[in-house]
Amino acid sequence: MLLSLTNAPRDYAWGSASLLAELEGRSPSGAPEAEVWFGDHPGDPADIDGDGTLDEITGGTLPYLLKLLAAAQPLSIQVHPTIAQAQQGWAAESGKGLDDPTRNYRDDNHKPELIVALSETFQSLSGLRPVSDTLSLLDALGDGAGVSALRAHLTGGADVLRDTLSWLLGGTVQPQVDDIIASVTAAAERADAGEWNTTIQAIAGVADTYPGDPGVVVALLMNHVVLRRGEGLFLRAGLLHAYLEGLGVEIMAASDNVLRGGLTPKRIDVAELLSIVDTVPSEVPVLRPAADGAITSYPVPVADFALDRVTLTGESVVRAVAGPTMVLATAGDVAVETESGTVRTVPVGTAAFVSADEPELRLRGVGEAFIAAPGR
């Protein structure tokens, strides 16, 4: 079975007014366009060309959700649970309705994610920076009362990052938060922070969007990562992260479990966040995989999904089908053909769905596409 998929962009406030339109070669709608979902998630299943939605075909069994993501402003700082944590949280909240505003868990699954940049740059906050490096960054912010208080929290205790997150998000230190943000803004204006200039400029931009939000100071504790086109980031369970700006292809396990840690008007459950966040500092490696001919793979340590990028130069590319598969076109002219001879053109910004009973698919054309499938 070969189906053509489309979906309407979701108009989250952080979405870009231009990035998706530019990708698809159309006029902007005038509204923020944040995400386009290609999957069978009940929140927004993809539309099948002709009639119906993908969940009517799959029964809602896809293990992954594929998206186009276009951010003009920062997304919320967030973290996702492991499967064990999700199962425990889902069971603990079994008495709450799915629309209960105090519910944290929407299902019993984990939500690892992979983002691959389509824009020339894609900015992210990913993981907690080593404390010694953050102390070096704070030296560039001066010695105001708020910065001094933050420095003190980062230099004592066995788990200083967890303690510092609790302090910042506890709702009792707004004067210190405001003072730290003022120091960030002043340092960005001076532009004399040496190796920390780029990071401080990025955090000052976050502060412009979310003035007074404690999440701005949480962002100071995180690695600022700038992807180039074609580079990727894998975000495992427990990893604090937030996308800041750019266009990308995102794939994740089919889950809606999100615990937030700032930069959002939505509810933040500080205790639950602290119970699942991994506060071991580390860099998050950028995936810069080497292409194997026309295909570039992005290896990830989960079985929920696999993602490959295919560069088409006029020669056909054949791939075996090992489970329900999607082909998302991101540039040029792309067509998909099955072994039976069925052919679908895939306009940029749309996808094709190939059912698991097809032995293989053939990509044709000149352009770029991403192939999503269950993990290998």
Automatic annotation (TrEMBL):
<dbReference type="InterPro" id="IPR046457">
    <property type="entry name" value="PMI_typeI_cat"/>
</dbReference>
<protein>
    <recommendedName>
        <fullName>mannose-6-phosphate isomerase</fullName>
        <ecNumber>5.3.1.8</ecNumber>
    </recommendedName>
</protein>
<dbReference type="GO" id="GO:0008270">
    <property type="term" value="F:zinc ion binding"/>
</dbReference>
<feature type="binding site">
    <location>
        <position position="80"/>
    </location>
    <ligand>
        <name>Zn(2+)</name>
    </ligand>
</feature>
<dbReference type="Pfam" id="PF20511">
    <property type="entry name" value="PMI_typeI_cat"/>
</dbReference>
<feature type="binding site">
    <location>
        <position position="78"/>
    </location>
    <ligand>
        <name>Zn(2+)</name>
    </ligand>
</feature>
<dbReference type="InterPro" id="IPR001250">
    <property type="entry name" value="Man6P_Isoase-1"/>
</dbReference>
<comment type="similarity">
    <text>Belongs to the mannose-6-phosphate isomerase type 1 family.</text>
</comment>
<feature type="binding site">
    <location>
        <position position="113"/>
    </location>
    <ligand>
        <name>Zn(2+)</name>
    </ligand>
</feature>
<dbReference type="GO" id="GO:0004476">
    <property type="term" value="F:mannose-6-phosphate isomerase activity"/>
</dbReference>
<feature type="binding site">
    <location>
        <position position="241"/>
    </location>
    <ligand>
        <name>Zn(2+)</name>
    </ligand>
</feature>
<dbReference type="InterPro" id="IPR014710">
    <property type="entry name" value="RmlC-like_jellyroll"/>
</dbReference>
<dbReference type="InterPro" id="IPR011051">
    <property type="entry name" value="RmlC_Cupin_sf"/>
</dbReference>
<dbReference type="InterPro" id="IPR016305">
    <property type="entry name" value="Mannose-6-P_Isomerase"/>
</dbReference>
<dbReference type="GO" id="GO:0005829">
    <property type="term" value="C:cytosol"/>
</dbReference>
<dbReference type="GO" id="GO:0009298">
    <property type="term" value="P:GDP-mannose biosynthetic process"/>
</dbReference>
<dbReference type="InterPro" id="IPR018050">
    <property type="entry name" value="Pmannose_isomerase-type1_CS"/>
</dbReference>
<keyword id="KW-0413">Isomerase</keyword>
<keyword id="KW-0862">Zinc</keyword>
<feature type="active site">
    <location>
        <position position="260"/>
    </location>
</feature>
<feature type="domain" description="Phosphomannose isomerase type I catalytic">
    <location>
        <begin position="57"/>
        <end position="130"/>
    </location>
</feature>
<keyword id="KW-0479">Metal-binding</keyword>
<dbReference type="GO" id="GO:0005975">
    <property type="term" value="P:carbohydrate metabolic process"/>
</dbReference>
